[in-house]
Design goal:
The structure is a homodimer. Chain A is mainly alpha-helical. Helices cover about 75% and strands about 5% of the residues of chain A. Chain A has two domains: about 80 residues, Orthogonal Bundle (Arc Repressor Mutant, subunit A), CATH 1.10.10.10; about 140 residues, GntR ligand-binding domain-like (Four Helix Bundle (Hemerythrin (Met), subunit A)). A three-stranded antiparallel sheet of chain A has the order 1-3-2. In chain A, strand 2 and strand 3 form a beta hairpin. The N terminus and C terminus of chain A are likely disordered. The structure holds a DNA duplex (30 and 30 nucleotides).
Chain lengths: ~230, ~230
DNA sequence: ATGGCAAAAATTGCATACAGTTTGCCTCAG
DNA sequence: CTGAGGCAAACTGTATGCAATTTTTGCCAT
């Protein structure tokens, strides 16, 4: 059995890492409902591993916040309420606002140029309606914004929040006209940053994320309740 | 041996939790230098436990960011540079500012009363110079501020950052006069919140944390380098 | 003397085993 | 019929063992 499994997994990352992704997916897709118990033995059987990596994976997920744990009790799926989701988007907006403001104040000349270039490059994707590609540019754009703040920990916090929000943002660009709007909003941010106008950049970024929030909320609320 | 240990630990939190604190302390106090290897067997021997809880603890610490891990390699102490520390304090100031602002806008009447009461109660501790007790009140005060924002995720982020910063803040009240200053700064925050003046509360909180930052930086830089 | 290679020692990753705690069911008394 | 207490099954927390990978050490060739 051991050998068979070894061959199955062949170097596709560590077992624990796989488990984290797999269990996270189970939670995100709704296969596991909030409050439901994640008992180690069942998971171990299901994924054909021992309890040890399962425990480690649950620990990671606990750190991420997807599951809750108490001593001597089963891990349970964290209840991501509509309210909690809203607070995550709110945090995201605040953090992005901070990043944009700091970026406006601190970005090097090169970083400003790169941000502008990235932004301009995405213009043609808007015209073509290339959602997939625009999404890639969008991610890159925001990442530049985070790094431009030149504050490692803030970058960490915003990246972490973004990752945690990712599942709920998936369909955001499907909303008609969202692509063009997104570009326009980015434009305001970029302009403010190039002007080194921190306050304006911060407000623009805050507003931008708020729009994304309301756009995504539609999709989130849909599968949220049964 | 097992029985002996059981009695040693008796209900002082889970073993893993203890290990996390213990290892974190080793890192923070400088007993372990950045880049140094944390091998599981040595740690297990040192704390007289098996490798399993040690591994879990290292996982937690990795999630917290105090150590780094790569597959099949020893965990190593993360290099917490002065720069990184500064960015954490900066993030803390921003986050506390947000919390104070939102608290001013959103706190219920009861929450405002409780915050004010907590604050006033700490006044006599300042006169008595009771650092230990003031620290407890201080923690409670800030926690109320975080919760008053009524935004779970922001509360999470700020709590998390605070926890990660805790080691570097320990001696902050030893600085002469810091107690009274802290109280005065809190006073400005409370007043602004009671006035529901979000902007003022945010700025006051930001400034407050910035002061703590510079006060702590002294201690941080001291044992930082060998 | 130095660089590279190989083998052995050390260490990680995972599995299994055991002890202690919780949980739920069942029984028995009121 | 209901509730309390206890017992058993299930599950978590920790220890230990084994296979695989890394790292170190020592040897040989250049």
């Amino acid at each position: 059995m051991k050998l068979a499994r070894k061959r199955d997994i062949i170097r596709s990352g560590t077992t624990v890492e796989q488990l984290v992704r797999a269990i996270a997916d189970m939670i995100i897709t709704g296969e596991m409902r909030p409050g439901e118990r994640l008992d180690e033995i069942s998971l171990a059987n299901r994924f054909e591993v021992s309890r040890t990596p399962v425990r480690e994976a649950l620990g990671q997920l606990c750190a991420i916040g997807l599951v809750g744990r108490q001593p001597n009790k089963s891990a349970i799926v964290t209840n991501v309420t509509q309210q909690h989701l809203a607070s995550m988007f709110e945090a995201m907006a605040e953090l992005e606002g901070i990043c944009a403001r700091l970026s406006a104040e601190r970005m090097t000349v090169d970083e400003r140029r790169a941000l502008e270039a990235e932004h301009k490059a995405s213009a043609r994707l808007v015209h073509r309606g290339a959602e997939e590609e625009y999404e890639a540019h969008n991610t890159e754009f925001h990442t530049r914004l985070y790094r431009g703040a030149h504050s490692n920990h803030i970058t960490d916090l915003v990246s972490q929040t973004r990752a945690r929000l990712a599942p709920f943002r998936r369909a955001q660009f499907r909303i008609s006209g969202r692509l063009a709007k997104s570009y326009d909003e980015h434009d305001v941010i970029v302009t403010a940053i190039l002007r080194a106008d921190g306050a304006a950049a911060g407000q623009a970024a805050y507003a931008h994320v708020s729009f994304v929030s309301s756009a995504s909320a539609v999709f989130a609320s849909e599968p949220g309740k049964n």
